[in-house]
Write a structure and sequence with these properties.
single chain; mainly alpha; about 0% strand; flat
Length: about 110
């Protein structure tokens, strides 16, 4: 959100790498919503086993956990959500095409 707010539209803005990254993160936001609690729980266990207890290490552990949650969610989006969206779009298009061709005689 901050990155997109700081990006000042220029002629090349819509081709910029920053916009592509922010857009990709926006696309994977639902996967983040669904997976973040599992990721946080797993990383909490890992950090406890590593003995992370000082305030500074907890702070950096939290930042690392947040970044890894976003990365895991984006991977889940690419491997699960995006293929399912394509599959559902294909099947709904097939249903529409079939129903449009159907003629009923009474």
């Amino acid at each position: 959100i901050v990155a997109s707010a700081l990006a000042i539209p220029t002629p090349n803005f819509y081709k910029s790498r920053l916009l592509k990254i922010v857009s990709a993160l926006g696309d994977s936001s639902y996967s983040l919503y669904l997976s973040h609690m599992f990721s946080i729980g797993a990383f909490k266990i890992i950090l406890q086993k590593l003995g992370v207890q000082t305030p500074l290490s907890v702070f950096f552990g939290g930042i690392t956990t947040a970044l890894l949650c976003v990365a895991i969610a984006h991977i889940a989006y690419l491997l699960v959500e995006k293929p399912l969206i394509k599959l559902s779009t294909k099947s709904s298009n097939n249903i529409r095409t079939t129903s449009q061709r159907a003629t009923f005689k009474i």
